[in-house]
Amino acid sequence: MRNSGILRLRVQGPAVASGRIAVDDFVVLVRQVQTAIERIALVLRGEQSMRPGRRPADIERLARLEVVALELGSAHFQDIPGLTLVP
Questions:
Q1: Among candidates 62, 61, 37, which has minimal Cα distance to 49?
Q2: pTM
Q3: Distance CA 15, CA 24 (A)
Q4: N or C: less crowded end of the chain, CB within 10 Å?
Q5: 43-75, pLDDT tens digit by residue?
C-alpha cells in the first residue's frame, strides 16, 4: 500500500548497526533533511535556496516534517501536520 505524503528514511552503515542510531546522529540527519526540503520549497517558489537569515514562515510551516513512525532501520515522516498516514 502506498501512502502519499510519507518520506521514509533508511540509514545504513557501521554507526547504525542492529537498527540503532545515536540520538545526536539522528537529530543531525533530520535537521539536514528538513533544510533540504525547505531549500527545495524555496526553489519551487522561484526564490534563492541559499540566502542568509531565517526561512519565510510559510516555507517553514509548509515544509515542516513530523515523525509518524519509527521502525527497525527506518523512520517515517509526515509533511502534513494533523494527518495520520501510518497507523
A1: 37
A2: 0.68
A3: 12
A4: N
A5: 888 888 887 888 888 888 888 888 777 776 667
